[in-house]
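> call design_seq(struct)
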């Protein structure tokens, strides 16, 4: 009969616990992913009732509250060292030998970019919301039926390049005979163009912000290892940069789903888009605080 030493038994139990922990983690991630897919990729039947959507929004609010506490902790660390600098910093802030980033150069440009992105993301949201009033007239794109030659038919057909041209010509001739329908259809098309344009500009502003922030990190004359000043500065600005990346990912995903046609115009704007826009405004608000309290505050202390 084979016997096991205490160390072997401990190692076996440890491997078993690690395996169980890994399986639990995989199961949790799999459940969260499937649940997220079920919620976000809901069909046009709108399976989520008001109570579920209300709970999801409450969860978003709690998540943002936890994010506020996260940034509050780093702001606390920054002011704890800057308002009463210790003798180790020479009783001055910022410490001698460290030149802070000029607030009215790259940081000011980044502020303008994020404020502009807040305007464009609002335009994107409210144009998407405005489709609700028009969706009762034009609930889906006009399609062409080869058998009836009627662009009002919703029977799906297989199209090639020649058919697409013929569809456009036939639809245009039919709309010219229906001025009211043509006006509504033109309004819907204008809304969609504005939606795509404003979302694109928001993404462009966000990407330019990230490139400028990266340029600032590379060319700053201090690093994260330069005491409390460097660590708090890079933690605040770097953590905010990570949130900008997350906000961009959410908006890109919303745009992808928009192109894919996942949204039901009768319930537009979609809950996922609403949460993405709220999160982007949260990112804007945090940056305004970082710009005023960290960049301008430190720069004025030097001057």
């Amino acid at each position: 009969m084979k016997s096991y030493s205490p160390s072997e038994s401990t190692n076996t139990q440890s491997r078993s616990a690690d395996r169980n922990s890994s399986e639990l983690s995989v199961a949790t991630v799999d459940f969260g992913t499937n649940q997220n897919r079920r919620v976000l990729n809901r069909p046009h039947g709108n399976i989520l009732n008001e109570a579920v959507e209300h709970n999801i929004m409450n969860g978003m609010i709690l998540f943002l509250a936890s994010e506020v506490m996260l940034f509050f902790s780093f702001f606390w660390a920054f002011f704890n060292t800057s308002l009463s600098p210790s003798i180790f910093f020479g009783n001055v802030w910022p410490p001698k030998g460290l030149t802070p980033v000029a607030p009215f150069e790259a940081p000011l440009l980044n502020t303008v970019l994020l404020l502009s992105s807040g305007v464009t993301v609002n335009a994107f949201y409210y144009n998407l919301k405005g489709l609700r009033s028009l969706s009762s007239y034009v609930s889906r794109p006009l399609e062409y039926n080869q058998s009836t030659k009627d662009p009002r038919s919703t029977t799906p057909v297989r199209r090639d390049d020649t058919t697409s041209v013929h569809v456009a010509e036939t639809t245009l001739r039919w709309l010219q005979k229906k001025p009211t329908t043509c006006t509504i259809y033109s309004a819907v098309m204008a809304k969609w163009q504005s939606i795509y344009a404003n979302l694109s500009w928001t993404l462009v502003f966000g990407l330019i912000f990230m490139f400028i922030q990266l340029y600032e990190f590379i060319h700053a004359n201090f690093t994260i290892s330069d005491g409390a000043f460097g660590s708090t500065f890079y933690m605040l600005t770097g953590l905010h940069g990570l949130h900008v990346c997350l906000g961009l990912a959410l908006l890109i995903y919303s745009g992808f789903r928009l192109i894919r046609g996942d949204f039901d115009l009768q319930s537009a704007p979609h809950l996922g888009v609403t949460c993405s826009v709220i999160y982007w405004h949260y990112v804007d608000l945090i940056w305004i605080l970082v710009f005023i309290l960290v960049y301008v505050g430190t720069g004025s202390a030097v001057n």
